[in-house]
């Protein structure tokens, strides 16, 4: 597939941390995403009390929205600043502790227990650490992953999903020769080859 000059582009963890530090977070939305509202029924599929995963969650407001509906939210984010801002902006008390299986990682958990955010690289996670999920809301993760890491990312996502889980994915369509990304262009054909 034609991804233009993007296939070799790499954005480092340090660059993402710098975006948060500088407040260069145009990817963060203050309002819940309209596509999540539109397709919520697809995600929930008539079920309640789901475990929903937010890969590369940032401080997504949808985490609180879904938690308030009675779902358990687990997110992963490399920026501790983003995680702490999520809890403070929603006035949610939380506790923080190290993740014994992952060197340097921390888990931030709401005192109500229904929101758990891991602060580490997504590739440090596995189902033995975080369990499996009934749903995934991928609003800006696949399009933020370096193109060369997409297969690794998709394999991890598939591994974290329960048999009957729903995966909502938002991508962007544009001419990849005109923008270097992120967000990266992920053609539909590639989505199909990654996720089947």
From TrEMBL:
Residues reported to bind S-adenosyl-L-methionine: 16-27, 56, 77, 121-122, 139
One GO-annotated biological process of the protein: methylation
The enzyme's E.C. designation: 2.1.1.67
Location of this chain's protein in the cell: Cytoplasm
UniProt xrefs under PANTHER family: THIOPURINE S-METHYLTRANSFERASE
Keyword Transferase among UniProt keywords: yes
Keyword Mitochondrion carried by entry: no
Protein's UniProt name: thiopurine S-methyltransferase
Gene this protein is translated from: Tpmt
Enzyme class: transferase
Reactions it catalyzes: S-adenosyl-L-methionine + a thiopurine = S-adenosyl-L-homocysteine + a thiopurine S-methylether
Organism: Chaetops frenatus (Rufous rock-jumper)
